[in-house]
Amino acid sequence: METKNYLKEFKTLAATLMFSGAAFAGTIKPFPKQGIWRGVFNVSESQVPFNFELKGKDTKTAVFTLINGSRRDDFHVERRGPDSIYIKMNTYDAALVAKIEEDGRLSGEYRSLVPGFRGNSLPFIAEHGKSYRFVEPGKDIAPATDLTGKWEIKTYTKEAVPASIAILKQKGNKLTGVIMTVVGDTRELEGTVQGNEFQLSGFTGPSPFIIKGIINDDKSISGEQGFGIYKNLKFDAVKNEKVELPDPYALTFLKPGAKFGFTFPDLNGKPVSLTDDKYKGKVVIIETIGTWCPNCTDQTIFLSPWFKKNQQRGVEAIAIGFEQKDDLEYAKYTLGKLRDKYGITYDILFGGIADKKVVAEKLPALNKFIAFPTTIIIDRKGEVREIYTGYTGTVTGTYYADYEKKFNKVLDELLAEPIPAEFTSTSSSKSK
Q: Secretion signal: which residues (predicted)?
């Protein structure tokens, strides 16, 4: 399906539903109740719980907030027909589509909106007034041990998977934490420990995530990670406070003798190159991103305000988006949503389909491409000075603090370097 047709059909569907709602105004069901809700996705034979809060009594005031530990993500609610609501997952091309049942519950599905992606949906139900995640109040079982700490994870799969560690915090039965890999993190997870069993889940807009397992006699843990509509991976883990991931600054680098460069269209189709006058003599931050990628969103939330604050110092930034369709019109829609949502004022280009092999082909100066996002920092001479693979969000604590500290240190040092003479003379001649 072409993107233009997709957008046209999307608007037609919305108009049809609005007309349907008007035609059956007498049977419009009350807006879902305000307050705390508990939802459950059915994923294969597993259930993945999630919690949210609904505020507002109509679509003009309603805010849908996903809750994961201390994290909050807000979304807009639309009425679609007399008995249904529609919650677009902000910049992710997916939505929760739900029917308001006679008893006030919500039933529906998490649905991919990417044109041509069929079967990518997860059914769910949700009930008002339930704030627990996995276990009803009063039914907790005393935990066998305290899982607080850092865990070294070994994953079992035929394909190579990134090294990973877990940082967990337990208070009584309540368990929160994050899984970190060289390509990013899971965002904050929330769950429980019951006897010698534990469970964690997370849903922030992209596909839901779940971990469940057991505590072994030797205090190690074993279990399975589920990635919503994608895949399941079995794992073992041992507590190891000294375990670390590979250095994210050493994973991706330039091939010997290679010169980094590119030409990609912006969202209006205009070719943009790193050699354009706009970037000469400037420090340039390159981000490879995708609107489907939660770590890319978190990195954008960090970079967008940083850029606004520092642009006058002689820095530029470029986000190269690799999307779920190799279609500029579709990328204009998805990346445009990202730009508007987070107030991006730097350049956004379209690189092509979201495939690591494609990125490696289009950026051949890199030794390999491992992760969305990858940050490439160019100095005033046009030379690559730093490449950071992945992104560590705020939930990672000291890891995020270290990332932010080094990012600012590197940029401060590069911005303090003098502008090469050939660029200052070019600027002077242009200003005359």
A: 1-25
